[in-house]
Amino acid sequence: MKSTLIEPRIHSDLAEFYCLWRDACLAKWASEADEVKFLLEFFADNDNINSIIDLGGGIGLHSIPLHEHGFAVTLFDKSEPALTIAKRHIPSLPIIKGDLENIDLQQTFDASICLFSTLNYLIEDEDRKRFFQWLTTHSKEVAIFDQINIRRLPRVYSDNCQSEDKHFRLNILREWHFEEEIMHTSFAYEFVDKESEATKIVNDEQKQKFFSEEELIRYMGNRWRMVALLGEYNSNLAFDPDNSPRMISIFRRV
């Protein structure tokens, strides 16, 4: 079956602007520092964790600090521009270019992480089964998945969001709707050069399909157990379907 995987251009040819995009889309929920702090504390408390694969890790927002703190991290992503950016920041960071739906690495890792709803670009059941078969075979100890909590989201929605850095302002018109289980999102980006005030409009889109807790447990199989379900990157905040911004699932091998 042909995959219907659709990922936005912000992960590929627009990857230089990914941090701006992320800050705009997350707004008050932008929490890169909290995410990294949580991961560092979690892995530091587990003596068996050294090697980690960051699946769909993009420009390395999580891989780079984990690497800098001494973990043997491998960044795996399909986007060559994103991997190039990560490598430019940390030349010693191991990177592998590949698709989640066709991953066939022979290495095993103590832990696997797949964050910021990257997992949800796997739409077809065939792709999901293939991915989880690889992950459950090649992860020794722990797997962490992070999805947005779609139970909080309206079925049809549009908004405007903004962010800026030293050089650019990014204005985003974002619209989404659900068709059965699939979330279709369109973006119109307005990039504004702050020095010249020159503007450029770029359109983008993505499709995502989200996992319930029960689906994740089923795909992980009986050799893995969900040991935590969190609503934020905080081990003290359990998942609340009505209020939590995210759904973070942590599995351990039985």
CATH class of the largest domain: Alpha Beta
CATH-level-2 architecture of the largest domain: 3-Layer(aba) Sandwich
Number of helices: 6
Distance between the termini: 33 Å
Rough outline: globular
Helix content: 10-25%
Strand residue percentage: 35-45%
Q: Using only CA atoms, what is the Rg?
A: 18 Å
Q: Would you identify the CATH H-level superfamily of the largest domain?
A: Vaccinia Virus protein VP39
The average pLDDT value, as a whole number, equals 94
Low-confidence stretches: none
- Structural domains: how many: 2
Q: Could you name the key traits of this structure?
A:
seven-stranded mixed beta sheet, Rossmann fold, 11 strands, single chain, 254 residues, alpha/beta
SSE topology:
Blueprint: H1 18-26, H2 32-44, E1 51-55, H3 63-68, E2 72-77, H4 80-89, E3 95-97, E4 109-114, H5 125-138, E5 139-148, E6 156-164, E7 168-179, E8 182-193, E9 199-209, H6 213-220, E10 224-230, E11 246-253
Parallel strand pairs: 1-2, 1-4, 2-3, 4-5
Antiparallel strand pairs: 5-11, 6-7, 7-8, 8-9, 10-11
